[in-house]
Design a protein that fits this description.
This protein has 79 residues and is mainly beta. The chain contains 1 helix and 5 strands; from the N terminus they run βββββα.
């Protein structure tokens, strides 16, 4: 999955940490994704309001969340 991909995640598609379900939808620009298992991957990205594309943002990513592989496949047109 290419860096910079826009992920529009419904609350049921991501977790802020293992075992904790998200309470709201989330939009991220993908930095990278690492598989956890067949169903989930750890995703690092920047929220849409971040200034990641300018010199103001010094962080490599703003969020690291657990995302369903199904949602990632859908984001790139494979699901």
């Amino acid at each position: 999955m290419p860096a910079g991909t826009h992920l529009a995640l419904a609350a049921y598609e991501w977790y802020p940490r293992v075992g904790v379900r998200a309470q709201a939808d989330l939009h991220l620009w993908l930095v990278d994704a690492q598989p956890l298992n067949d169903d989930f991957a750890w995703v690092r990205g920047h929220v849409l309001g971040c200034t990641w594309d300018s010199s103001d943002c010094e962080l490599p990513w703003c969020r690291e969340v657990l995302v369903s592989v199904r949602a990632l496949r859908r984001a790139v047109g494979l699901g």
